[in-house]
Amino acid sequence: MISLNQVSYKAGKKTLLADINLEVQKGEMLAVIGANGAGKSTLMKLLSGDQQAHTGEVRLDDEHIKTYSMAALALRRAVLSQHNTLSVSFLVEEIVMMGRYPHFNGQPSSHDVDIVKSVMNETGVKHLAGRDYSTLSGGEQQRVQLARVIAQIYDIDGAYLFLDEPTNGLDLLYQQQILNTARHLADKGFGVVAILHDINFASRYADRVLILKEGRILALGTPNEVITAYSIQEAFGVQMALFDAYGCKYPFVIPKGIV
Amino acid sequence: MGLLVAVMIASACLGAVHIRLCDFFAIVAYRTGVNPQAHYQPQQEAVLFALRFPRVLLGVLVGAGLGISGASLQGLFRNPLADSGLIGISSGASLFAVMMIVLEATIFKQLQQATGYYALSLAAFAGACITTFAVYRISIQQGRSDVSVLLLGGIAINALAGALIGLMTYMATDEQLRNITFWNLGSLGGATWKSVTALSPFIAIPVVALPFLSKSLNAFALGEAQARHMGVNTGLVKRLVIVLATMAVGSSVAISGIIGFVGLIIPHIIRMAFGADHRLLIPASAILGAAVLTLADLVSRTIVAPAELPLGVITALLGAPVFIYIIMSRKRRTQL
């Protein structure tokens, strides 16, 4: 479990996050939504140990997150960042193998090689193994990066996976594939936190949804509890119509107009 | 590796006094005790041991140092155009060497008295360390050094050093100008056993240590934040690469002057041939750097023999077309 207790974070004098209380359980998928600048990425940096909270405390599996070294953290959680550009070109399989770097010195063991193979299978990038990363399409690149971060924690029970807008710029099929993979990992016992822009995807895939507004928690709960016309209007300043579409047990929203 | 040995032997044998291959082996066999009889002229042995060997070894050391530093700095800065010049190593060394030549100030005189022939090298090495440290200090924000600020800092310090070098050049006498020019073009002409021994630890330590950072540098290729997420202690890696590269390049420049293009191009050639994995790239760049520099030195002292062309001229003449070819072929590949 990752827990945030009365956490706040400032950049200069500006408060980016205030009074955050949150618990992320193993085996759940938590979607974080909110307007631009609401503090979603900052929250993820605190959860993943990238930045330290100014007040309050962040605990990872009952230990203060500050007490983990970089190497120890890498064995507890993996992070898929928003922008992944490569400075020099590597092959796809080399990149996925980099996910195993925290696990070996020198040369990878056969266990590492096996994991890389199964992860590439599961994320559907096996056929790209020998390709040069820079020649892939945006959607393929994103799936390769996802394979890399999954490979990092694949054999660690109850590890955490952080996804910062994993579906950005992808078409409908790739979006579904990536969120399906994330959902599947949560079902296997990983704690998954994903920043999403699409409210309907959050509603469809997540166990719980967290709505941030101006650095504070506006709502936190199951999609049915949290996604309401009121909360969306509060968070985004957009009027929404809420549907209970036929055969769909999740709330479904479309914009009506700007408030 | 085989290439390096071949180039080293060729370079030891060729020159104003030619030594045939069989004589070379006869001399080596006698000196190492394999063959108790000496089947050669003593003059050849003198040339080989007093002149050629130190020079070849110096070329190997300097080339390996430049190649390996170039490869690791390009990895660290996530920029295939990075080389030791970018973070002020070379310009700092230049500035101090030029100041030493032109100003002839008291402090330099004292240094000269204390260390004699090596005063210029020491000044250059100190300059390299000072400017690199300044650039690194500029880049630190909240205890973390930011790579893009590091590059900007490098540009600023380079500009400053360039301006001061310009000022020194303006003040210099004709003879000093000639000295400056020669120093800036680089040469292995100052090779002695003493300079080789002095340089070797400064090259040996980076050559042994940098390959241990190759996995971390691979992770850096994904991005600094990504490397951190993968458990790389990015701050430590940055400091180590900068210190080791400054050590290798600063000491090389101090003894042989500025030799351009080797640090920039060698890693590109290796990447084109074997891929970007730093576990291969870093050691291979050291070996190819050593071979290329030894070869370039061979060309520089034989092509207009008995005179010598400045080594920096040769490396740039060979390096620039190769670099253009790399750019063109990469352009063609990405168009497809």
Automatic annotation (TrEMBL), chain A:
Protein name, as recorded: Heme ABC transporter ATP-binding protein
GO MF annotations in UniProt: ATP binding; ATP hydrolysis activity
Matches recorded under CDD domains: ABC_Iron-Siderophores_B12_Hemin (cd03214)
PROSITE patterns found in the cross-reference section: ABC_TRANSPORTER_1, ABC_TRANSPORTER_2
Domain ABC transporter: 2-239
A Pfam family reported for this protein in Swiss-Prot or TrEMBL: ABC_tran
Function noted in UniProt: Part of the ABC transporter complex HmuTUV involved in hemin import. Responsible for energy coupling to the transport system.
Keywords, comma-separated and alphabetical: ATP-binding, Nucleotide-binding, Translocase, Transport
